[in-house]
């Protein structure tokens, strides 16, 4: 069963409620597991409309949309939780509070939904507030959703881009600028104890709490081990602070070619033996992971607050 993934561009609360109520009721009537993830005040308005007896799982989007890869994982957990019933999900993304790089990852996330859940039989309606959101976000919604609902019937967006092509374009647009005062640590052999100690010391020096510091050490170790195994020497790591963030960048001289697709490391793996498990784990550990591969080598940049 294929995924139904639609964007819903709405104008005001009345328009939001009219379309989302029909959508959620259609899920209930079809016997689907119905989940409503929405922002306030939309969430409370919907709950008042349906009342306490409705068999709907209500979720505040503000606490659900915190990290793109974790949100993908959590939606996958919902789909697995209700199987073999299919899921009918109202899924209102959160677009406030992100910088440009984080915004790009959330846009990529919307595209990835089409791949992660393509055979789930799920139905997803993603509301976009035309009055509150910048034009760019509304334009990207049409590139990441095959169908769109506005004032009339559901129609093809006409500008939809498949996830593989979309993800590759996101990566090509990355630009890495490293400050001249970034500290450098050469990674010259498989014993990474010294590297882990170096990162741990710098993380604590820069004020990271214990758990984020441990996550960063684990992530750096995984990326460095991968570079040693699959890349070309020299392998090295740079670390520096940028405002509230601590950044680590691991680079080697090889040209990383994702296999089987550019989606590797984004798609939740079936097991620890599946290719991409390490990169997926790294993405879960840090606030943002970026990968750039080109003529000058392969570089993985980790952001953590």
UniProtKB/TrEMBL annotation:
Keyword Kinase: yes
Ranges for domain Histidine kinase/HSP90-like ATPase: 185-302
InterPro entries named among the record's database cross-references: HATPase_C_sf, HATPase_dom, MEDS_domain, RsbA-like_anti_sig
SUPFAM superfamilies recorded: ATPase domain of HSP90 chaperone/DNA topoisomerase II/histidine kinase
Domain MEDS stretches: 5-146
Stored CDD domains: HATPase_RsbW-like (cd16936)
Domain of life of the source: Bacteria
The entry's keywords: Kinase, Transferase
Coiled coil: none
Annotated GO MF terms: kinase activity
Record bears the keyword NAD: no
Name of the protein in question: Sensor histidine kinase
């Amino acid at each position: 069963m294929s995924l139904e993934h639609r964007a819903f561009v709405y104008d005001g609360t009345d328009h939001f409620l009219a379309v989302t109520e029909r959508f959620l009721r259609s899920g209930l009537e079809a016997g689907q597991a119905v989940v409503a993830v929405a922002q306030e005040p939309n969430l409370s308005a919907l709950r008042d409309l349906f009342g306490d007896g409705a068999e709907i799982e209500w979720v505040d989007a503000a606490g659900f949309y915190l990290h793109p890869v974790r949100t993908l994982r959590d939606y996958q957990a919902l789909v697995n939780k209700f199987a073999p019933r299919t899921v009918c999900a109202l899924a209102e993304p959160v677009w406030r509070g992100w910088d440009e790089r984080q915004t790009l990852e959330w846009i990529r996330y919307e595209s990835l939904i089409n791949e992660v859940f393509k055979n789930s039989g799920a139905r997803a309606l993603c509301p976009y507030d035309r009055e509150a959101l910048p034009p760019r976000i509304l334009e990207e919604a049409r590139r990441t959703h095959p169908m769109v609902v506005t004032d009339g019937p559901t129609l093809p967006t006409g500008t939809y881009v498949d996830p593989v092509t979309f993800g590759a374009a996101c990566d090509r647009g990355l630009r890495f600028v490293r400050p001249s005062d970034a500290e450098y640590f050469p990674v010259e052999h498989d014993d990474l104890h010294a590297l882990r100690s170096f990162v741990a010391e710098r993380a604590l020096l820069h004020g990271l709490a214990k758990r984020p510091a441990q996550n960063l050490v684990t992530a750096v170790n995984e990326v460095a081990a991968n570079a040693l195994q699959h890349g070309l020497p020299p392998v090295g790591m740079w670390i520096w602070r940028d405002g509230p963030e601590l950044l680590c960048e691991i680079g080697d001289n090889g040209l990383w070619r994702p296999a089987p697709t550019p989606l590797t490391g984004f798609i939740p793996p079936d097991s620890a033996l599946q290719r991409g498990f390490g990169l997926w784990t790294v993405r879960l550990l840090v606030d943002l992971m970026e990968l750039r591969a080109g003529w000058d080598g392969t570089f993985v940049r980790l952001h953590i607050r």
